[in-house]
Amino acid sequence: MPSASNIGRRYASGIFQLAEEEKAIDTWREEVAKLDDLLSDHVLRAAFQNPAVDNPRRMDLAARLAPELRAETQNLMRLLIEHHRTADMPAIRREYERLADEASGIVTATMTTAIPLEESERRRYEQQLSKKLERKVRLAVRTDPELIGGASIQIGDHLVDASVKTRLDRLREDLLR
Predict the structure, then answer these.
(1) Across all residues in the chain, what is the average pLDDT?
(2) According to the per-residue pLDDT averaged within each range, which of 78-87, 91-100, 152-161 is highest?
(3) Do 98 and 124 meet the contact criterion of CB atoms below 8 Å apart?
(4) Burial class (CB within 10 angstroms; exposed 0-12, middle 13-18, buried 19+) of 130
(5) Is the model's pLDDT at 48 over the cut of 90?
(6) CB half-sphere exposure, 97, CA atoms < 13 A
(7) pLDDT tens-digit profile of 90-114?
(8) Rounded distance, CA 138 to CA 130, Å?
(9) Which one, of 79, 139, 90, lies nearest residue 113 by Cα?
(10) Residue 158 forms beta bridges with which residues?
(11) CA neighbours closer than 13 Å in the CB half-sphere of residue 34
């Protein structure tokens, strides 16, 4: 059985190819977000998990809750319902957004700090990273008190760890040698 991340990649890749053909990457980004929000509704989720609710009733319920979705998005929703993949929608959305960002030259970075950052600080780091990488950067910030101080930045597979915890761990290793 394929993992949720593989399923997310497969569906997102198909949606992205269609979006490129239509020259509608941002439109599809909005539609994928709307569909993910819709399918995250706790009432709808419960109905989809209930074996007594058949696919036609699930589709009817979803369509009544989201009449503003484009016909193509309604078709995607029908496909997800028919293949019992509605729970995979968050993974599909994440992967689609990654593909759309990549196509737009946007890099996603995750900064982990010991204490929460103010929004102005987050924007400043985002601008500095954008300047250094010469690409637009979308910065997500997480907090991990175990870092003690400093920060780590993850960009794709590349990690820059300038946390106090890592420095102390390295110092400990050096002293034990």
Answers:
(1) 90
(2) 91-100
(3) no
(4) middle
(5) no
(6) 15
(7) 999 999 999 999 899 999 899 999 9
(8) 9
(9) 139
(10) 155
(11) 19
Partners of 130 in the β-ladder: none
- At a CB cut-off of 8 Å and minimum separation 6, what does 167 contact? 150
> 10 is written with which tokens?
């497969």
Q: Is residue 62 within 8 Å of 44, Cβ to Cβ? A: yes
Distance of alpha carbon 118 from its chain centroid, rounded?
22
Q: d(Cα 31, Cα 36) in Å, to the nearest integer?
A: 9
Per DSSP, 128 falls in state: H
Q: SS3 for 150?
A: coil
Structure tokens at 14: 């198909």
Paired sense of beta strands 106-113 and 136-143, if any: parallel
Which domains does the chain carry?
4-101 (1.10.520.20), 107-176 (no CATH)
State the residue for tokens 């998990």.
Answer: 49
- 35 vs 40: CA distance, rounded Å: 8
Looking up tokens 């995607």 gives 76
44 contacts 61 by C-beta, under 8 angstroms: yes
